[in-house]
Amino acid sequence: MRLLAVHPSSLMYTKVFLRLEPLGLELVAGAARNKGHDVEIIDLQVEKHPDYWERIERFRPHAICFSGNYLANVPEIIDLCKETRRRLPNVFLFIGGHSISFIARDVLALSDGAINCVLKGEGDATVGLLLEAWEQGKDLLGVPGVVTMEGDGPPPIFIESLDEVRPARDLLRHRRKYFIGTLDPAASIEFARGCPWDCTFCSAWTFYGRSYRTASAKVIGEELQEIKEPGIFIVDDVAFVHAEHGLAIADEIKRRNIKKEYYLETRADVLMRNKEVFAVWKEIGLSYIFLGLEAVDAEGLKRFRKRVSMDRNFEALEYARSLDLIVAINLIADPSWDRERFEVIRQWCLEIPDIVNISVTTPYPGTEIWESESRKLTTRDYRLFDIQHAVMPTTLPLREFYEELVKTQQILNNKHLGWSAIKDTLGIALRLALRGQTNFLTMIWKFNSVFNPDLQMADHAQKPEYEMPLKPEGTDQKVDRKTLYVHGPAGRKSRKIDDDTEKFVDETRMSTVD
User: Fold this and answer.
1) Residue 313's Cα: distance from chain center in Å?
2) Where does residue 329 rank: exposed (0-12), middle (13-18), buried (19+ CB within 10 A)?
3) In angstroms, rounded to a whole number, what is the distance separating the alpha carbons of residues 253 and 474?
C-alpha cells in the first residue's frame, strides 16, 4: 500500500520558539515501511495545504494517516479529512497520536464519517496490523487500539522493544527547518518512552500507564551517528530517570566520538539525584536543560502534585548553572492570577538568569485536572486548548488577563532576545545565517506578531466550528485513575529502572497506587 503520513500545522508557541521534527510520525512511517508499504511524509509545519493536495495528486495514496498529538490541531485535521474524503472517496483515513487517543470517539463523531478509525496508543506498534487488516478486508476492530463508530478493538499494545523501529528520517523534506532556540538546525531523538510520575496537569503517565522503557545505548549511538544535524533535542518526558542508562549512552557517544549539541528536559529532583550523569553529559555536548518547575511556591506545587520542595528546585537551578548550562524553566499561569501575582512572577523571573516560559493552566482530557477541576470551562473550542489561551474563568477580566500574561512574556522575551540582549544573541544569529540557518534569527523578531492580546481575544470571538463534548461536572473528589489510562498500568514490571530508582519515584510522587 501507499501510505501518506501527515503532521498538522504549527501552534501558537511553536510559531516562535521552536519547530521540532515530527519524530512520532517518522516512527510510524518507519514501522509501516518495515512491513513493506510505500510511505511518504508531509509536515504542514513547514509546508502548506496546497502542498498537501499536490502530494496527494502525485503520490495517489491508498491510505492517509494524521498525527493528532495536540488538541488545537483537531479542527484542521477534521477539515482536511472531510475534504480528502470528498476528493478520494475510497482512501483509508485514520488518525493516531497522543491527544487523539483520549478523545477518539468524539473526533470520529465530528468527522461525519470522513475518518475510518482512530488508532489509540503507540502507533508504531500497531500501524502494520491496521494496514494489513484494511488491505485484506478484515475487521478493523480486531486490531489493538482501534476505535470506530461501531466499537472498540482490543486494548492498545506496546511495541516489544524501542530498538525495533527506527524513525524514517529520510522521508522528511526540509530538514533544516527544525530548530529549538539556538540549536538550528536540530533533530529529535528518543532515549526513553513514558513517565513513572503522576502530575495532575500531565497526560504522559496516563497515556503510557506509568511505564518507563528505554532504548539500548548501542542503538542510540548508531542513530546519533547517522543524524546529520548538529543540534539534538532529546524528546524524553523526563531525561535520565535511570542514571545507569544515561551513563551508558554517554559512554557510547564518547566511544563513537560523536560531536553534537544537546537540549533535554528533566525534573529538578532527578537532576539533583543524578548529578554525575548531567556533569558527564555537559562534557559531551549538553547545552540546554529545561526544568519544569511549574510553580514558585509550595501551594502551586501541591496543586500540580509535585512532591518536591522549593528549596530543592532552587538547588537544582544552582547546580545546572554551576555546570554552565543554559537553563530554561516553565511556570504555569493559573487563571486565578491577579495583577499583583503577575507582578510578583515578573520580578522573580527578572532576578534569575534563566530563561522562563509561561504557559496557562489547561485541563486536557487524560489529565486528572480534566476530571477534577471544579471551575467550569469558558470555551470548548478545540483551537484554544494550546496552553496559551485561558479556557477556564479568569479572576481578571479576560482581556486584562491576556494583557498581563503577554506583558510578562514580553518582559521575559526581551530579557533574553530583545535589544538589551542583542550583543549576546546577534553573534549566534549571524553565525547561523552564514551557514544558511535563519530559524533562530527570524524567531528574535517574531514575538509581537504572534503573542498579542488583540489576537487572543479575536480567537475567543471566532465562532467555534468544532467543540469538545461537555466536560464532566468538576468536583474536588478523588478521581478514578483507572478511567484515565490509554495503555493500562502494568505496575513495577513496566518500568525499566532499578529498585532504588523505583523507590525514589514513589517517594517523589503524590499517589501511592498505579
Assistant:
1) 23
2) buried
3) 49
Task: Supply 26's cell numbers.
Answer: 517518522
Q: CB of 250 within 8 A of CB of 280?
A: yes
Per-residue pLDDT in tens (0 to 9) along the chain, 514 residues: 999 999 999 998 888 888 999 999 999 999 999 999 999 999 999 999 999 999 999 999 999 999 999 999 999 999 999 999 999 999 999 999 999 999 999 999 999 999 999 999 999 999 999 999 999 999 999 999 999 999 999 999 999 999 999 999 999 999 999 999 889 899 999 999 999 999 888 999 999 999 999 999 999 999 999 999 999 999 999 999 999 999 999 999 999 999 999 999 999 999 999 999 999 999 999 999 999 776 665 555 455 444 555 678 889 999 999 999 999 998 889 999 999 999 999 998 888 888 888 999 999 999 988 888 767 899 999 999 999 999 999 999 999 999 999 999 888 877 765 544 455 565 666 676 667 777 777 776 777 888 899 999 999 999 999 999 876 665 556 677 788 999 999 999 999 999 999 999 999 886 656 6
Residue 367 is given by DSSP the state: S
Please tell me the distance from the alpha carbon of residue 482 to that of residue 490, in angstroms, as a whole number.
12
pTM above the 0.85 mark? yes
Cα distances from 2 to residues 30, 36, 38, 235, in angstroms, run 13, 10, 5, 29
Q: Which residues contact 418 (CB under 8 A, 6 or more apart)?
A: none
Residue type, 190: E
Q: How far is the first Cα of the chain from the last one, in angstroms, to the nearest whole number? A: 40
Using CA atoms in the order 30, 239, 180, 199, what is the torsion angle rounded to 10 degrees?
100
Domains of the chain, first to last:
2-147 (3.40.50.280), 178-333 (3.20.20.70), 372-468 (no CATH)
**Do 261 and 325 touch, CB atoms closer than 8 A?**
no
Cell 495536540 -> residue: 70
Q: Which residue is it, cell 502494568?
A: 490
Check if the beta carbon of residue 391 is closer than 8 Å to that of residue 362: yes
- CA 81, 35, 108: angle at the middle one, nearest 5? 25
Residue with cell 515578573: 346
Inter-axis angle of helices 422-434 and 439-450, to 10 degrees?
130
- Contact, 191 vs 215, CB < 8 A? yes
Half-sphere exposure of 318 (CA within 13 A, CB side): 6
Give the closest residue to 227 by CA, choosing from 280, 288, 166. 166
CB 338 within 8 A of CB 299: no
What would the grid cell of residue 356 be? Answer: 522562563
Q: Which DSSP helix (H) or strand (E) runs through 252?
A: helix 243-256
Please state, in angstroms and rounded to a whole number, the distance separating the CA atoms of residues 402 and 454: 9
Q: Are strands 2-7 and 63-67 parallel, antiparallel or unpaired?
A: parallel
For residue 473, is it left (φ>0), alpha (ψ between -120 and 50) or beta? beta
